[in-house]
Write a structure and sequence with these properties.
The protein is mostly helical. It has a domain at 20-160. It has eight helices and two strands. The chain has helices at 2-27, 38-43, 48-71, 81-103, 105-111, 122-130, 137-167, 189-207; strands spanning 169-170, 173-174. It has a two-stranded antiparallel sheet. Strand 1 and strand 2 form a beta hairpin. Helix 3 packs antiparallel against helix 4 (81-103). The longest helix is centred in the C-terminal third of the chain and has 31 residues, at 137-167. The relative contact order is 0.17.
């Protein structure tokens, strides 16, 4: 009996941790389900590489800020928690901004001001307030990783479609024949809205639960 009592919580915790990760990645995807972070989603996804870079930058900030907020959750006074979270997030956004500049000035120029605007991304502040401030570091990390990878997935979906149809390339590599008439509109804001709408429709259809079988009367 003592052995079962000791091991059962571990199994439950493992299942709960997996659920936390899957929730952000798929069930409550920040873009395709919660429709959050629309500004960078529509603005930087004119290419797959830009979308990937923005997604990874956001994931980095999510991981770091969730970890620190969880560690300090008992030390931060409730009255100044939002200001404290923004300060923490801004610190890591500054770090990732310098990292992108060091890696590629061209990429930094392509992302423009949207790297700095990660500070006010409602996904990051929302996870800090709703999850990291109330959970352990381990669960906060899994939540950040799930939400971050879900964001990367969504930006890659949009960026790939827009780049292929708008430029005939994928991450800069030609994938369509020279005779293909490029859809220039896909590189414009209108193309972003159009592509997002199509992906929302596809994602909703994939996630749609099968209809329940009607009960037969005896």
């Amino acid at each position: 009996m003592e052995h079962h009592t000791a091991t059962s919580p571990t199994a439950d915790d493992s299942a709960g941790d997996t659920d936390v990760f899957i929730t952000g990645l798929w069930r409550q995807n920040p873009v395709f389900v919660q429709v959050l972070g629309m500004c960078p989603t529509l603005a930087v996804t004119n290419s797959a590489l830009n979308g990937l870079a923005m997604g990874l930058a956001t994931t980095f900030v999510l991981l770091m800020s969730n970890t620190l907020v969880s560690l300090l959750r008992k030390a931060i006074p409730r009255q100044v928690r939002i200001a404290s979270y923004i300060l923490i997030i801004a610190t890591f956004v500054t770090a990732v901004d310098y990292i992108i500049q060091a890696l590629s000035l061209e990429l930094h120029k392509a992302l423009g001001a949207f790297v700095s605007l990660i500070v006010v991304n409602c996904i990051i502040l929302g996870r800090a307030e709703a999850f990291a401030s109330r959970n352990s570091v381990r669960r906060s990390l899994l939540d950040a990783l799930g939400m971050g990878l879900g964001f990367v997935f969504a930006l890659l979906c949009l960026g790939s479609v827009r780049e292929i149809l708008g430029s005939g390339t994928l991450v800069g590599i030609a994938v369509l024949p020279d005779g293909f008439e490029k859809w220039v509109v896909m590189l414009l804001p209108a193309g972003g809205f159009f592509t997002l709408g199509l992906w929302l429709m596809v994602f909703k259809r994939i996630k749609r639960e099968p209809p329940r079988a009607t009960e037969t009367q005896p």
